[in-house]
Amino acid sequence: MKKSISVPYDEETAKQLCSGDYVFLTGTIYTARDAAHKRMYEALEQGEELPFDIKNNVIYYMGPSPARQGRPIGSAGPTTSSRMDKYTPVLLDLGLKGMIGKGKRTEEVRHAIVRNGAVYFAAVGGAGALLSKSILSSEVIAYDDLGTEAIRKLWVKDFPVIVVIDSKGNNLYETAIKEYMED
To answer: Taking the complete model, does pTM exceed 0.85, yes or no?
Structure first.
């Protein structure tokens, strides 16, 4: 099923999304990769604030290439999500409602998604140039010294993703394999 939602979103919206749904996101999302996640985790351990309000927000696991002239961002494809799994349950427990990346997640992350009524989305890997066309603006908001891994605030319009793990724990990667094997 195809759905359009505004980001950020709340738990009620997350509960309406099902594994396998095609979703178009419009609004504000944030980027963060390995190094930024490590810094956020360390900040929390030291009792410091995160660089943005994580509650009800979505993090896109992406580090863009340099922007071409007249564009807000370069190629913006997803990175492998499992590299953030060590830090993800803590962020979900603080109210993070969505993550965008590619690849499988650990059982610990899946349990945290269910516990917190969140969603894990996949963006199509290898389609970074196409995905960047849905990004209308990009602004570095934290950890500028990390270069492409700095945290960015993005304004997106009709950003295409697929629900992989929904708030009930249904996992498209598992169900799709079962359906394929049955055919």
So the answer is: yes
